[in-house]
Amino acid sequence: MRFVIQRVQRASVTVDNEVIGKIGRGYMVLIGACEADDEAIADKMVDKMIKLRINEDAEGKTNLSLADVGGGLLLVSQFTLYANCKKGNRPSFVEAGPPDKANALYEYIIARCKERVPVVEKGAFGEHMQVELINDGPFTIVLDSDRL
């Protein structure tokens, strides 16, 4: 499983010219799942993401977690995180999890986050989306379950 976490001042996701999710300060997170992923891996990833201390304290040091700053989450499914570009110029996506499994894990992650974070918004699985954000820092972290 892969999460691309961007610390944001604000972020939104739009489908068919309608904003379906938006947050103020917090994390905009792209989420990709592969065949080997399961709920145990998702739990580990969610726990790590929520506990990350990547928000600045009064001295400008990254010492504060999402909860410490009252931040929200915008969670967006992103199968292209598993693009393989080794051969040729057209990416292969065979490493991405099958849609039914990926969607189930995405919904599971959303539910787990809602248990711990007051503001959780989401994109629309399998839809063409426009994501807008103001990256704060910029600050971007890539979490890969193979490296936790």
> How many DSSP E strands?
8
**SSE class:** alpha/beta
* Quaternary organisation of the protein chains: single chain
User: What number is the mean pLDDT?
Assistant: 97
Q: How many structurally independent domains?
A: 1
Q: Can you tell me the residue ranges where pLDDT is under 50 for at least 5 consecutive residues? A: none
Query: Tell me about the biggest sheet?
Result: 6 strands, mixed
> Which CATH first-tier class would you pick?
Alpha Beta
Distinct helical segment count: 3
Account of the protein in words:
The structure is a single chain. The chain is of the alpha/beta class and 148 residues long. The protein has one domain (2-143): D-tyrosyl-tRNA(Tyr) deacylase (D-tyrosyl-trna(Tyr) Deacylase, Chain: A). The protein is built from three helices and eight strands; from the N terminus they run βββαββαβαββ. The strands form two sheets. Strands 1, 2, 3, 6, 7 and 8 form a six-stranded mixed beta sheet that branches. Helix 3 (99-114) links the parallel strand 6 and strand 7 (120-122). Helix 1 packs across helix 3 (99-114). The longest helix is centred in the C-terminal third of the chain and has 16 residues, at 99-114. The protein is globular. The relative contact order is 0.30. The mean pLDDT is 97.
